[in-house]
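ligand=pyridoxal-5'-phosphate
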Amino acid sequence: MKDDTVLAHVGSRPEEQSGAVNPPVHHASTIIFPTIKALESRGSARVSYGRKGTPTTHALEDAFTELEGGAGTLIVPSGLSAATMALTAFAAPGAHMLVADSTYQPTRQFCSTQLVRFGVQVEFYDPRIGAGISSLLRKETTAIWMESPGSDTFEVQDLPAIAAIARSAGIPVMIDNTWSAGYFHKPLSLGADISVHAATKYAVGHSDALLGAIVCSERTYETIKATVHDYGLCAGPDDIYLTLRGMRTMGVRLKQHQQSAFAIAAYLMRQPEVARVLHPGLPESPDHALWKRDFSGASGLFGFVLDTHVAAKVAALVEGRKIFRIGKSWGGFESLLIPSGPEKYRTAAPWNVNGQTMRIQVGLEDVDDLIGDLDEGFQRMRSMLS
Ligand SMILES: *Cc1c(COP(=O)(O)O)cnc(C)c1O
């Protein structure tokens, strides 16, 4: 079945829920067993303790597992906890981990603080390294972390090349797949073992809940599950329900985000103040060939570089807009525009651009209105004395 069909029906069992289309929201901590024997063998039951998930949780797990072709999924309270749990599962004193330099900044921070505290040697690498990653592998390497396209900078990584090298070394590849929502990119089919999501973004889609998902291959599922359970992480049932509800319409939303984002990228390319547009779907992008090979589409988040660092000019573009708002968590219906700062945290592949890097989330508003709103910002910017 195609993704849109999966998203419409996965986890829906009307015959088990009085005919209702949607799964009930189970608010449950205690699970009752009919006999002592059933209590003692609860480990093999799918529902055994509220913290480990209810049918509400399982419906969402199944949605991610089917969407990405995994063996199983763990649902955790945020995208960041999805990333940190996956990394923790392969951390040990003396272990070496390779982390893409374009990784979401809070995940990088976890690596540089908590993983280092546990005695892990964290090494950041150039996201465009491709097969060159083989020269960084050590006998202590326990995992390779990727994010593609990268946060703020949008480099596409050569997943098949990296996964082939990792596989021959027996190391799992984990990827933050939030940008594609698991809809436009299928990392497990390209050799990754773990695909991590901030479901907070497109799955939830309405900026009203935080949630994370870890989609696992057969060989990593039990390890990840044990780690998540040992740490006692569980998400609330209402947020899980909202996420599944969001996923029912994720396909149509993403197609609209994609279409409007391409139109706005084309508009930005025509503005003289825009030095570069950071969108892998554009033929001008250095990552276009990889994106075309490994992705079936593009979501609504991308970047661009203004030809100025002057804060007042950046503020003239961004502040006081009628539609575009200044906010961080993206993937909702509303458009956002912010200055980003990849030059502040990059180490392995420094981000050297002569100007201000920006991040734009193209929402579901009318695209002509969005362009009109941006145009007002550029006019204000131009009207300032340089
Ligand atoms: C937002 C984001 C996260 C973190 O998600 P939260 O649910 O806010 O914790 C992780 N990775 C990427 C790429 C993100 O954009």
